[in-house]
Every structure is written in structure tokens, then in C-alpha cells.
UniProtKB/TrEMBL annotation:
It holds the Pfam family zf-RVT. It comes from Lithocarpus litseifolius. This is Reverse transcriptase zinc-binding domain-containing protein. Signal peptide: none annotated. It comes from the Eukaryota. Gene3D superfamilies: Ribonuclease H-like superfamily/Ribonuclease H. PANTHER family: BNAC02G40300D PROTEIN, POLYNUCLEOTIDYL TRANSFERASE, RIBONUCLEASE H-LIKE SUPERFAMILY PROTEIN. Residues 267-387 form the RNase H type-1 domain. Residues 90-161 form the Reverse transcriptase zinc-binding domain. InterPro entries: RNase_H-like_dom_plant, RNase_H-like_EbsB-rel, RNaseH-like_sf, RNaseH_domain, RNaseH_sf, RVT-Znf. GO terms for molecular function: nucleic acid binding; RNA-DNA hybrid ribonuclease activity.
Amino acid sequence: MIYELVVPGFKEAKVSALINPVTRRWDTYLLRGLFHPTEVALILSIPLSPLPVEDKVIWPFNSSGVYSVKSGSRFLANEAILSPLQAYQHQHEDIWKRIWSLAVPNKVRNFLWCACRNAIPVKRNLWKRRIIMDDKCEHCLSAPETTYHALWECPKHSEVWEAFSGCEFRQVRSFSSIRELVDFGFSEDKNMELMVMVMWTFWYRRNQIRTRHLDFPASQVIPQASQALSDFKQHNISLPLQQGGSGQSWVRRHWSIPPTDCFKVYFDGATFPELGKAGLGVVVQNWEGNVMASLSEQAPLPFSPDIVEAMAAARAISFAQELGIRPFILEGDSEVVIETFMAAEESLSSFGHIISLAKSTLDTNECISFSRTVRCGNKVAHNLARHVRGLFV
Ligand SMILES: [Zn+2]
């Protein structure tokens, strides 16, 4: 409910008039002069970007900020009272979410994500950037080595895919990209975990042969992929997410040590509505499992828990940069925040600007991947975020 009449002189004023152009913070003095205290509190709960950004039109009734017919119908059906999390859980699962839900090692999920975005260094991609002059596949010498060719189409892979139960469609159906193939695989309920492991093994094999001239018979691809998948499942206690929708969702339950010479940066946020504050927690762990640094910081209370998580993630990145650690894996328990980091397109969500800015500060080799853990796997960062409560009393 709007309490105020328009103050003379402010009829044509824009929201930017309420933001201090130097500090990039809400002008609380002006707000208190113009609005009811309840409205002032609401306005102050909207996080601002520290840098000037273009205005955007967003749809506020789902966490992506993008209008969908489903969320529009829900809004019209007066269901807009759903929390952002509930609204998110009702959304259609897209391919990125499904990739993230696969119970395969993180490196394999990241690899598939890159492959679906055609962002792996196949010869065709290097040739397009004029890094190499020849883009021919070194296995078959008959076609350019595109991502699709290297992982699926190469005739030298036929014996492997023909032995893979459920992939008979390869002989009669072609796709325009790996993304289209993966989309098809999900929609047809194929054994995507093993299929993705096989693709990853093909890529690994290709690199082993290319860089180390190692003998890696194609007949070993499926056995090696199956073994790696079963090892992963044995060593990772995973559980389906609550209300995970039609597909199974799998997340890491315990901390895992990052690869050698790589750090993990965990983040978590906490809210204290009764105090009008939020807490941000960050923990940095090295590849030997030792905690290298931690941070516990308070922040103004924004209007949704997702925003606190985004603020914690952004703070985690700036903290890692202040410490000069690299490369690192950013890990947190907020599915929506991690997905926004992983998405190629800019998010229109209420916290999209926070993540866009944090991403824009990252070098390509600085943060090598984003990863999600469940709350109990992120306990220290969680406790640090909760710890700031004690600073208010
Ligand atoms: Zn080939």
C-alpha cells in the first residue's frame, strides 16, 4: 500500500533521485523526508549495484525475473503469494538445471556445461580463432573437429556408441549441436549419467592421445566411464532434493577437497529479520583440506533470502581476490545463485545485478567452476553467517 501523496517538485522524479550518486547508496535522509517509515524500510531492503547499471524491466513473480506464461497464470490466479523459492520450484526445469542435477563428478558437469555452450577447445573452435590452421578431426581425418563431432558424431566413435544401450537413435537421427542432443537425451529419459561420462571419457582420451601419445583403445571407453561413475556414486553420499520435480536432483552432501593447486571458497548468507540485518559467511579451503581464511560480516537486510545468498557469493569472490588466491571453485548451498553464476545470459532476477557485477570482476582462469553443496556440507560458512548475530546484541 502506498501511503504518501506526491510531494511537490517530485512529480517527475525518477528512482535515481533517491540514490546518492557518490556513495551509490539510498539517500536515507531524502527517503525519510518523502516516505512513510514502513516504505523507507522496504526501499532500504532493495540492494543497489555499486556501479551504475542500465534500467531493466523485470518480472518480479519468479526468481529468474523473466516472464513465463506459467508464472503469469499463477499471478492471475492470485497465487503470487508464493515465496520466491516455491515459485522457483514450480518452474519448468531447463537444460542447465538438469545438467546440474546429474549425479556425476563436478568436473564432468562443468565439462558438459561447456560442451553445451560450445566452449571446449576443439580444433574447430581454435581454428575459428586463428590459433591453428587445420581443423580436421585426428581420429577420422574426414571432418572438422567440432564439439558435436568430437563427442558424438565421429565415425571412429561408432563402435562405442553402438555398444551403448539406448543410443541406437544415433544411426538414424542427427542433431545440430551437443546441446540439442543432451536436450533430446533428457526428454527421452536416456541414461544421461553414463552417456555424459562416456562423452567426458572421449574428451579425456582425445587429450591423452593428442598430448601424451598414450594408447587408449576405444573398447576401454565404456568400461572406464562406467567404473568412474560407480566410483563416484560409492564415494559421494547423495540424496534427492526435496520436491525435486520430475527429474532426480543430486547434490554434494559433504565437503570435497578441491584439485591440487586449487582453492574452494564457500559462502553462505543468514537473515535476522527481527534485527533488520543479514550475515555473510565465507570460508576458504585449500587442496589439502585446510581452512586458509574465513570471514563473517554483517549487511543490511534485503527483502529476500536469495539476495542475501547472492551478496554472500559476491563477497566471497571479492574476499578471494583480496587474498590473491587463484584458481578457486565457488561453492554454496543456494541453487538459484549457483545457477545464475553458471548461466551464460544475464539474470533479470532481483539479485542479477549483484551476480553480474561479481562475475565481471573474475578473470577467466580465476574462478574455474561453481558448485553446489547442501546446507550440512557448508556448515562452517553457515555458522559464520549466523555468527554475526552476536555482533548486534
Ligand atoms: Zn572424427
